[in-house]
Amino acid sequence: MAWTRAGRRWSWALALVLAALAVAVPLTVARRQEPPPRGTPVNLELEDFKIQEDAAVVPAGTVSFRILNHGPTTHEVNVIRTDHDPGKLPLQRDGLTVDDEAKGIDAVDDVGGLDIDDRETLTLDLTPGHYVLYCNLEGHYLGGMYAALTVR
Amino acid sequence: MEPRRTAAGGRTGIGRLIPRLPILGDLRLGRRLGWVIFLLIVLVAAIVGYNARAIAQQRGSALVVNQATRQRALVERYTRDVLLVVDGFKADPKDSAEAVRQPVDVLLDGGSVRAPGGDGSRVQIAPAQNWRIRRKLENDRRLIDELITIGDRLLKRGPDNPQYEADVTKLRVLGAQLSSVSNDAAQEITQQTEASISRLVRIEIALGLLGVLAALALGLVLRRAGTEQAAQFRSLVNNSSDLITVLAPDGTIAYQSPSVQRVLGRPAADVVGTTLGDLVHPEDRHDVNESLTKLAEAAPGATDNFGCRLRHEDGSWRHVESTCTNLADDPRVNGLVLNIRDVTEQAGLRKSISDLLHNLARRSQGLVDRQLELIDELERNEVDPDRLQELFRMDHLATRMRRNVENLIVLSGVDQRRRWSESVPLRDVVEAAVAEVEDYARVQVAGIHDLTLSGQAASDVAHLLAELVENATSFSSPTTRVEITGGPTGNGYVLEIEDHGIGMSDADLAEANKRLAEPLSADVAVSRMMGFHVVGRLAARHGIKVQLRQSWFGGVTALVLLPAALLGSAGQHPAMAPPVPAGVMVSPEPLRLADTTAPGWQPHARLPLRRHAAPAPTRGGDTDAAAEAGEPFD
To answer: How many CA atoms lie within 13 A of B88 on its CB side?
Structure first.
């Protein structure tokens, strides 16, 4: 059957759409696949106002914190090395947030701006010691949003 | 692809729905153009709509952000008021408690808030739709409830409460958490608002780009349509059998359609820049110049028609008819537009018919002349009064036949008239004309001045007057008289031929005067009113003006204005003098009969004596009756 001019146009258009899909779909799927964590994985789940971790003691070396914020507000995760009691960290002058520059506190790293359902991976090389993970938004730490981690 | 058209030539599809745009003139809107315009309109409407929505959303968003940030301030105020009251200071935490719930309730459930600007008006805020915002606001509300519960407990129990310290700490922590959460919600709302506005702006930019593309497409389609229309016009002009010529104000040819190659055998480029007079036959040049000059001085848009001969490249002459329009005021033309049609074939055919007519008439004329000579001879030898009366009647009929034949010669366009080298007395010419008429006895000539008429025009003027006098006698009662008088005017001499007949309607009079002023070429229409056309043609030969008017006494007056150029003083004696017929009343002097032996006077010099007049028919009545009665203009 002889193709009409309009038929050929539609065929070209369909072929272009299929080609675009063939390129776009694998790229999209590839982006959704997360790389496997390096070192020891530690899952952290954040919610108002607590941090749940699936391991309190980990071996020294590379540790990957896989963080998921359940909300319902934005949170952050600060990692400090300290020998202070996790529930009695020194506060700033406002009495509402932790003073991470106080004596006996060694700030390691932090992840901020975690919105609801956000996922983030924080990979650190940790030496043996006591660590505290907490949210330092106003009132969050005082509300009980912290967790202790021991590295051996 | 050409747009489909209905049988009536209308547009179909979307093009049918788009009105003709005046700015485009006669440009036809095809289906494609209709779609482009439709798309452009939709895009513009969408841009306007989105703009309005973006502005409204921006205003609403500003209020929502304002409410969200206000939430934090209210929480801090409530916390402070509770702590102040508990510590013994004066404050109003109850009002604060009521106020602290308001923003989050409005943001979650919708409601009205006071408009910024302080004019007291209120603005409606819609409930939050975004799920993240709603979760954060719901968390906010839960914390507020918890804060107020603790605040109420502190206010109720005071410092004596064993849990006082714990409650104060809890209150401060909750206040801090609420500040954080409210701040987070405000940020989320701000981000969502910015994202929404950014999305609207992107859509507007996209719509704007699409609008630009549609406008470009519209321009391209219009340009293509214009090009197609111009090509169509060029094709029509190029392939037209007519010439289209534009004359510039200085008389040169500013534009010449290519069809001049086919008509005159010349390329258009060779004609442009020359003058039209270079192409016009020398004999026609004066008339053409006169027509064009008149038209150039006429109002814009005026038209005129003229015929002439144009020179072909091979030296021959082409007969053309031109319709000329003054478009000097049109900046796109700025000149006279001539639509010239080649009528050479028609002119040839017309000349053949005229030649045929002329040849037949000439043969008949010869026979009638011989017949009249024979009757003359019989009349001279006859002594019996009865037989002589019969001969006079035969003479009259033959004379009428001769004038009919002469009419045919006039209508054939051949100028083969009798001429005298010397001037002829005007009175003699009038009398000769009267002598041609059957009812000459009813004609009264009075007050003709002693003037002479050019010998070149004498024969034609006598013929012209004879036709008018015969018309007057035929369409008036046999008992009434027809009067011929004369009088000088500023530019010549006027002869008035007045009858007392039934007259003519204004419409018939106007039609007759039109025929007299603009005689047609020989055709069927001419044969119906031959007399008027013959008079018109004879008058046109010598610049004589003839006009019919209603007579004051009933009937019709024919005015014949002889131009001064044809007239002379009475000192120039005539070479001819027609004989006075018996019974003709002449005042102040009697008519003199023509001298039939005078050289050059043959037809009009003869004057048969008549005894009877035919009964007058009704003017404008039955044609056959008029013909039987000898009606000359039939």
So the answer is: 2
Q: Are A57 and A111 in the same domain?
A: yes
Is residue B291 included in any domain, yes or no? yes
CA B126 to chain centre: 63
Best interface-test mutation with A: which of B173, B174, B179 has the largest number of A CBs within 10 A? B173
Structure tokens at B156: 């109720």
Chain A environment of B169 (Cβ under 8 Å): 142
Same domain, yes or no, for A60 and A28?
no
Domain termination site, one of B404, B426, B447: B404
Same domain, A127 and A54: yes
Locate tokens 């409204």: which residue?
B56
Is there a contact between B177 and A71 if contact means CB atoms under 8 Å apart?
no
Per-residue pLDDT for B496 more than 90?
A: yes
Answer left, alpha or beta for residue B583, where phi above 0 means left and psi between -120 and 50 means alpha. Answer: left
d(CA B116, CA B62): 10
B395 lies in the same domain as B247: no
Q: What average pLDDT score do residues B10-23 get? A: 48
pLDDT digits (tens, 9 = 90+) for A91-149: 999 888 999 999 999 999 999 989 999 999 999 999 999 999 999 998 999 999 999 99
Cα B225 from chain centre: 25
Which of B284, B260, B262 shows the shortest CA–CA distance to B272? Answer: B260
Judgement on whether residues A97 and A120 belong to the same structural domain of the protein: yes
State the CATH number of the domain containing residue B271.
3.30.450.20
Residues B206 and B268 in one domain: no
Cβ–Cβ below 8 Å for A139 and B179: yes
For B211, the token pair is 């609008």
Q: How many domains in chain B?
A: 4
| B84-105 pLDDT, tens digit each | 888 888 888 888 888 888 888 9
**Residue B558: band (very low, low, confident or very high) from pLDDT cuts 50, 70, 90:** very high
**Domains: count for chain A:** 2
CATH of residue B549's domain is: 3.30.565.10
B391 and B433 in a single domain? The answer is no
Q: Are residues A52 and A27 in the same domain?
A: no
B450 and B328 in a single domain? The answer is: no
* CA of B199 vs chain A CAs: smallest distance (Å): 21
Q: What value does the CA radius of gyration of chain A take, rounded to a whole number of Å?
A: 24
pLDDT per residue over B265-294, tens digit each? 989 899 999 988 889 999 998 888 888 888
CA distance B617 to A87: 142
- How far apart CA A73 and CA A141 sit, in angstroms, is 14
Q: What is the CA radius of gyration of chain B?
A: 52
ipTM of model: 0.74
Q: Which of A72, A115, A139 sits opposite B139 (nearest CB)?
A: A72
Instruction: Say yes or no to pLDDT of A89 above 60.
Output: yes
DSSP state of B414: -
Does B19 sit behind a cis peptide bond, omega within 30 degrees of 0 on the bond before it?
no
Residue B459 sits in which domain range? Answer: 417-628
**Residues spanned by the domain of A8:** 1-33
Interface membership of A37 toward B (CB under 8 Å): no
- Cβ atoms within 10 A of the Cβ of B192, count? 18
